[in-house]
Amino acid sequence: MRKKLKINQLLLIFTLQFCLFSIVLANDDNELIRFERELFTPQALSHFGMGVDRFKSLTSVQKRDLLEARQILTSFIKPIQNPDVDLSQFLGQEFLARYKTRNELLSKLLDPETEIFVTAVTDFELQQNNTLNLKHYVILFSEGNLLIREDLVRFKKYESSWKIVNIDGL
To answer: By C-alpha distance, which of 50, 85, 167, 65 is closest to 126?
Structure first.
């Protein structure tokens, strides 16, 4: 009976130690995440703009379209290196038809072992026939270097959603 009680006490002690150790590790992980976020998150010091007259010339539909296209661009870029994400949901059929595979498209967009850190829109152009262009840049980390690349991305509206139909240089 005493032996069984001692074993139960030891199991309880080990379980409590494990729980405490897990809590300490979780707190360390949370502290690390918070510290990294505070230290390494980019801080916008300024941003691109458009001027009052240009803003006033936009209709509410055009403003919404520009913001939707920007969201599609960001949604396309963010998971670009995740092989489980279907990028075709962001791309028009004519753009997709140029590439046989996802890897072929990605090889045109990025060098191997390249990580994208930041993207931002710098300008836009509204065109005819439900088409618009967004000029944007990305900050990349490739082969030990930070690089800035600027592209012009053309969007076309299909029914109710915007799709990427061209990226300059591809």
So the answer is: 65
